[in-house]
Please model this.
Amino acid sequence: LYANLAVSLKWATDQEKRDKLTDELNERMRVHMPRMSSIKLNVAEARKSQIQNRQIQLESFFRRQTSRFNSKLQLLQNSLDKLCEKMTLKCESMRNFTFELKQAKSTSAFSVLKQNKQVAENNLSVTFDQFVEKQKKEIVEFFDFFKTSNDRFKENVMLADSSYSEEEREVASQYFQRMEDQISIIHEDLDAKVKSNTEKVNSLRDQISSEFDNALPHNLADVQLIEMIVSLHKEYSSKFESLIFSNYTMERNLQQA
Model:
């Protein structure tokens, strides 16, 4: 045991051998360290490429969404304008009842005209309600489409891929937030447009109805006056003819007497 210990101590204190072993270790470190750096470099390059590809994918998605949004927005605005124009024409058709007031030749004709107008107004009210709901529905469907599309991208791309880092998710969330902010502004503008269209049509309905209500008493009074004159003319014509006949009868009786 002592002999073995002496040999070990001699080896441990052998400076030449220790230097040789140190040189071998340094050589091994020199040979293997570049390989470790190369591995780290390859991993970093792969990660960098992955991030760049995701950035390109995200930007491409937003470009497509923006182009699609602007295109469909123009179609929606045109549709809202056409709905308003169509409803305006239906309101304008109610002016025919005002024009027909001048054509009425009897008080009974006014009664029939008022009844027909009431039926037309009831139908117009139903059409107006449909017009309001149609505008709202088109706007809701428009924004729901893009919300669903955005949510699908988040779910299928961002959330489904666990390799997304928190920083990448944060950047993507900022993109979506900016888009949602812009969409909210456009949503408010469209709501204001619908409100303006509705008020415009409603104001036209009230105006046309007021024109009829204002014109009705004057036209009715004219016809009633004419009917009274005609009635008086018939009455006095009948009395005059009776008087003439009575005078003629008296003259014949006097001549016979």
